[in-house]
């Protein structure tokens, strides 16, 4: 890494980022850190948000409504500043050992009562001051800026610390609820004026074991109560002293405070307290994860069933459409066959009508001894031989009418000679001739050279 122009501090940050994210390629870790100006916390938070499919809190809308937090002391494990393991106890001024003489006892009681009322009165005075003159500074205008200012100043003063959530309190609550994780809220006052806060931040929160445990098991959100966002959260959590840590989680579908850690303590004691709170309440998150998994499974199963049902409906509809197409095609075939049958029948009826009409146009057969009579033999397609006498002055059309009206003759035919073959009449040729059709049909038998007892062939054009 040094060969790539990185300082030792930058190399350490690359290694830390790799440990936190599990990204094996160190070049990717380096590029991510460079993109975030080597701010390890910002890079880590953004990487986590990317993995979760959500935008970074720095670009997400800060106008998020926070879920209601239940602050019920019966549901909380409370670790106060005067409990064993706390360093705050050693810094509380003592009023001395209990004296044994009567006057000493009276003085001791008077001194104790005086200190009690003094501390109570001073607390009331501070509250009145805050009420009387602290309204304008407490108006929350940019909660994200308050949080980022706290993180920046905290990092400058205490470089070693757990990763703070880079978003508003409302965003942190919603993320903890969505991800089913413990939310650890940290609040403090100016460390330069509060030795408990200074000791807690410099010694306890900088412990590697504390950092690893908090980063692994919680979302850590912090703020200074001197900012509007920190003051608003402080008011909702009922703070009695600093430093303060509050553990919030989803329990029975409500965001509930389950742990309250007040005052300074050693890193070992902080770990013990956090482990106690998390171990005692982990069952609720496990149940919530199981319920969510079951709901997701049920929803996925229902969605798959719905999709399968929709696909089945689509398949049934497609089958029905295919059957309808086949039925339509069958109907079209039947209709076409019916039309063809009707056309054949109509044509037959038309031909029968034409035969009746044209029968009157067939010339009468001349007697055998007529001077200009000739006998013509017709050979039909079915083998029938017809013999008929015509006058040489009769036309080819007269011959056609005779054959057309004969019951043994086909409906569409042509009349030809045997050898050499000549077409004397063809309806197709007549229709094609149009204007010259009369020249064809009006030729007499004499014109076409027919002789007595000549054989003419009738060919079926529809065969």
Structural category: alpha/beta
How many beta strands in the DSSP annotation?
A: 11
- Beta content comes to 5-15%
* Topology pattern, helix = H, strand = E: HHHEEHHHHEHHEHEEHEEHEEHHE
As residue ranges, the low-confidence spans are 53-61, 92-98, 130-137
Provide the gyration radius in Å: 56 Å
Overall pLDDT level: 82
Helicity range of the residues? Answer: 40-55%
Multimeric organization: single chain
Q: Largest sheet, if any? A: 6 strands, mixed
Shape: rod-shaped
Distance between the termini: 97 Å
* Helical segment count: 14
Can you characterise this structure?
- With 463 residues, the protein is an alpha/beta fold.
- It is 52% helix and 14% strand.
- It has helices at 8-21, 26-35, 40-51, 88-91, 102-133, 143-157, 169-179, 195-204, 208-217, 228-237, 267-359, 396-405, 427-433, 437-441, and strands spanning 69-70, 77-79, 182-188, 218-224, 244-251, 254-262, 373-379, 385-391, 413-417, 423-426, 454-460.
- The strands form two sheets. Strands 1, 2, 3, 4, 5 and 6 form a six-stranded mixed β-sheet that branches.
- Strand 9 and strand 10 form a beta hairpin.
- The radius of gyration is 56 Å and the shape is rod-shaped.
- Residues 53-61, 92-98 and 130-137 have low confidence and may be disordered.
């Amino acid at each position: 890494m040094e060969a790539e122009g990185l300082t030792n501090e930058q190399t350490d940050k690359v290694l830390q980022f790799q440990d936190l994210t599990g990204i094996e390629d160190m070049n990717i870790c380096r590029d991510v850190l460079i993109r975030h100006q080597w701010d390890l916390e910002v890079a880590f938070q953004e990487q986590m948000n990317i993995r979760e499919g959500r935008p970074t809190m720095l670009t997400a809308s800060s106008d998020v409504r926070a879920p209601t937090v239940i602050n019920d002391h019966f549901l909380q494990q409370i670790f106060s500043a005067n409990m064993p393991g706390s360093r705050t106890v050693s810094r509380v001024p003592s009023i001395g050992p209990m004296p044994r003489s009567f006057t000493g006892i009276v003085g001791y009681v008077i001194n104790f009562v005086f200190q009690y009322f003094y501390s109570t009165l001073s607390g009331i005075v501070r509250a009145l001051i805050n009420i009387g003159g602290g309204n304008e500074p407490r108006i929350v205008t940019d909660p994200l800026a308050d949080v980022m200012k706290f993180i920046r100043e905290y990092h400058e003063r205490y470089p070693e610390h757990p990763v703070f959530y880079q978003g508003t309190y409302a965003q942190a609550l919603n993320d903890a609820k969505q991800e089913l994780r413990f939310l650890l809220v940290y609040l403090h006052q100016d460390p330069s004026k509060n030795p408990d806060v200074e000791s807690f931040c410099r010694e306890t929160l900088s412990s590697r074991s504390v950092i690893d445990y908090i980063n692994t098991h919680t979302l850590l959100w912090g703020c200074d109560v001197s900012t509007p966002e920190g003051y608003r959260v402080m008011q909702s959590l009922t703070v009695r002293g600093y430093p303060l840590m509050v553990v919030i989680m989803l329990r029975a579908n409500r965001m509930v405070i389950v742990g309250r850690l007040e005052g300074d303590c050693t890193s070992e004691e902080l770990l013990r307290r956090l482990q106690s709170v998390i171990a005692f309440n982990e069952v609720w998150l496990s149940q919530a994860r199981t319920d969510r998994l079951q709901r997701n499974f049920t929803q996925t199963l229902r969605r798959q069933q719905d999709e399968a049902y929709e696909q089945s409906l689509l398949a049934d509809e497609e089958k029905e459409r295919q059957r309808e197409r086949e039925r339509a095609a069958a109907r079209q075939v039947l209709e076409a066959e019916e039309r063809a049958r009707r056309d054949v029948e109509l044509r037959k009826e038309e031909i029968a009508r034409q035969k009746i009409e044209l029968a009157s146009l067939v010339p009468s057969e001349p007697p055998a001894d007529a001077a200009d009579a000739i006998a013509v033999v017709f050979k039909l397609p079915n083998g029938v031989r017809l013999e008929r006498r015509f006058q040489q002055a009769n036309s080819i059309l007269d011959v056609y009418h005779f054959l057309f009206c004969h019951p043994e003759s086909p409906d569409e035919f042509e009349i030809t000679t045997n050898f050499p073959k000549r077409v004397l009449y063809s309806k197709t040729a007549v229709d094609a001739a149009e204007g010259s059709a009369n020249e064809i049909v009006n030729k007499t038998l004499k014109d076409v050279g027919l002789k007595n007892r000549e054989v003419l062939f009738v060919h079926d054009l529809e065969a």
